[in-house]
Design goal:
Structural class: mainly alpha
Number of helices: 7
Number of strands: 2
CATH topology of one domain: Cytochrome Bc1 Complex, Chain D, domain 2
Shape: elongated
CATH class of one domain: Mainly Alpha
Distance between the termini: 50 Å
Largest sheet: 2 strands, antiparallel
Order of helices and strands: HHHHEEHHH
Helix content: 40-55%
Strand order of the largest sheet: 1-2
Strand content: under 5%
CATH superfamily of one domain: Cytochrome c-like domain
């Protein structure tokens, strides 16, 4: 019994000491280009989704009507596009982040969906509001009000649907143009790009 207890204690002492030695004497993967640690993404996503499952709002407090989507497009253009890209124009910044910021107007090869359009709007709202640690995804709580965060979340949930022409202009990186609301051709369509692997922001930012 004494040997068992001693072995147990030594195991608890040796393993942390060995880990500390490895961290001190090896190149720990902390650069963007470094390979991921074993199970890093799975562990991070598990904790993220466990938290979101408890806090996500199932029913949005506003409707995804035209004014909401146009307002959401303006918010997206001003706050989100730098990392997540415009419609048809992926972000060079987002591609160089770790995890990469998903291009929200392209088809996700892992899910066959445009951006996060297959997620609940409330899940996207949670990420916009709270941010995700160690991913580059900031918290917009205190930057945007509740209505604005819902507007952009409902916009992203509608990324696989036709959008108001004024919204489309902003999502292309343009200012709304006179008469755009009467242009029937200005609707969003899935961007035809070669599938590429994107790392979901410890949930998929």
């Amino acid at each position: 019994m004494l040997r068992l207890v001693l072995g147990f204690l030594l195991g608890f002492l040796i393993l942390p000491a060995a880990l500390m030695w490895w961290l001190k004497n090896n190149n720990v993967p902390v650069a963007v280009a470094d390979p991921a640690l074993p199970f890093e993404e799975r562990i991070a996503n598990t904790f993220l989704h466990k938290r979101m499952d408890h806090e996500v709002v199932k029913v949005p407090p506003i409707q995804a009507d035209e004014p909401t989507l146009v307002a959401g497009a303006e918010i997206y253009r001003d706050h989100c596009a730098v990392c997540h890209g415009f419609h048809g124009k992926p972000s060079a910044v987002g591609e160089r982040m770790y995890p990469t910021a998903p291009p929200l107007w392209e088809k996700d090869p892992d899910k066959d969906a445009i951006g996060v359009s297959d997620d609940l709007p409330g899940a996207t709202w949670w990420k916009v509001s709270n941010g995700i640690r160690l991913t580059g995804m900031p918290s917009f709580k205190g930057v945007l009000n509740e209505t604005s965060m819902w507007q952009v979340s409902l916009l992203l949930a509608s990324a696989d649907k036709p959008l108001p022409p004024a919204a489309v202009e902003m999502l292309r990186g343009n200012l709304p143009t006179a008469g755009a609301e009467n242009d029937p051709s200005a609707v969003t369509k899935p961007v035809k790009t070669a599938p590429r692997k994107t790392t979901r922001a410890a949930g998929g930012q």
